[in-house]
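Attaching the record inline, Q. Sequence:
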Amino acid sequence: MDLKGKPEETFYLVRGDLLPEAIVKTIEAKQLLASGKTETVMEAVQRTGLSRSAFYKYKDGVFPFQAVVKEKIIVVSMNLVHKTGILSQVLRYIAETGCNVLTINQAIPLQGVANVTLTLDTSTLESSVSELIDGLNQMEGVSKASVVGRG
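Structure, as predicted:
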């Protein structure tokens, strides 16, 4: 049981050819939807030969292995000059790299510098984490950026 009294989830790594057809087709349908090759669940299940009820039964519980492994979360700490627009520029840069901001925590500026901690999903990062941090450190108004945690 977890802290809220719910049963803990258990995950298994299973070779694809051992999975029941409905699970394989659910993954295929989800990939069709995610890629934009189909626009509706009905269209995706028709293309894969899966029933809608089977899709809805399994859709929230099956994922391709790459999708699970690809999820990468980092925590970045930065010291930013307390000046209008600096944080906005940082967030724009992060979005341009393909990262998704999960949380933002900004301390009150002291002596003209504010510490900002960002939690980032880097699963769609278009470069390396090192390049992301280097880019942040080169930005005007960023006096220091570093990774302080990984999830």
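Helices lie at 21-35, 41-48, 52-58, 65-70, 86-97, 129-138. The chain has two domains: 16-68, 71-150.

More tomorrow.
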